[in-house]
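User: I'm new to structure prediction. If I give you an amino acid sequence, what do you actually give back? Let's try with this one:
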Amino acid sequence: MGFHLPLIFAFLSLAALALANHAAQPAPQLYWNSVLPNTQMPRAISELLHPGLYSTNEEKSTNIMNAVGNGKPTDHKVKPDDIFVQESRINYGGPSPSDKPDDIFLPATRIIYGPPPSDNQLHYKNVAIFFLEKDMRPGATMNFQFPRNSNTATFLPRESAQSIPFSSNKLSEIFNHFSVKPTSVEAKTIKKTIEECEAPGIKGEEKYCATSLESMVDFSTSKLRTRNVQAIPTEVLEKGATMSMHKYTTMPGLKKLAGDKVVVCHKQNYPYAVFFCHAIKQTAAYVLSLKGDDGEKVKAVTICHLDTSEWNPKHLAFQILKVKPGTIPICHFLPTDQIVWVPNHKTA
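Assistant: Good question. You get back a string of structure tokens that encode the predicted 3D arrangement of the chain. For your 348 residues, that looks like this:
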């Protein structure tokens, strides 16, 4: 018996260490590990898993200001010619949130129909807001900007998120919960995010606003009909001299992701992490390696819409690319705070 005691003690020590590590992990991460044991959690998600986000009203106020601020990158001085990732949805018809005519906002994959773009918007046709599949060939160059995400709102466990109202009918309760004045900018942003989540989807789109990591996992895996998935963000692998607009050269190694149906999740401006997710048919996803003229290296997730026949003929993409609806796939990058979910056909 004495011979085996060291082995028993070693086993018990390892077991205790494993239990301690398990207990230290936040609930959303435990759920991910349980449901997606073979899927690597991207940094864009793992950095949002800080527990204990809301403990005092003062902390709530600070976090809300960071989460539902104007969303513009803060690491360089704002100039009229800058282009920002302001929202996760495309809004072509209305004024920019800054009310400056020179501002334009980079698109995600959710299409909002509206009036034709203004001359000021078309001024940016030399920027890779939209591009064609041929533009992803090695050696091609595109002007773009991959700013650091300034929306730092973190995930709540699903149980906590479900205990907080998320409905336009419950706005007063939501404002009270986060100690937000109904007439404040923060309140307007909260209201807008909820209304966008409640708006009907477009034709061929299955949409859902995930108020927790657990619900985002559930929605994505259910629409892809498998738990064998990849979750991939755009990543800045090596930063250059600045974070401003640069010319990027497409490098060899274009990778097409599996499946003819993808789920894309866009981070919303909200006091805690909320992702607008939608499943889109007739869509191809790629990972593209880019190198900026300042040395910055980016692994850019690219979405190509294969069927644009239902898009408004006055859509900004057609104006920039000089093509007609339904004639050719139209592509765009995903910003760094968005995730594409695709089936993983590499493993069993």
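You can read the tokens as a compact description of the fold. Here is one thing that stands out. Residues 1-23, 52-62, 70-125 have pLDDT under 50 and may be disordered.
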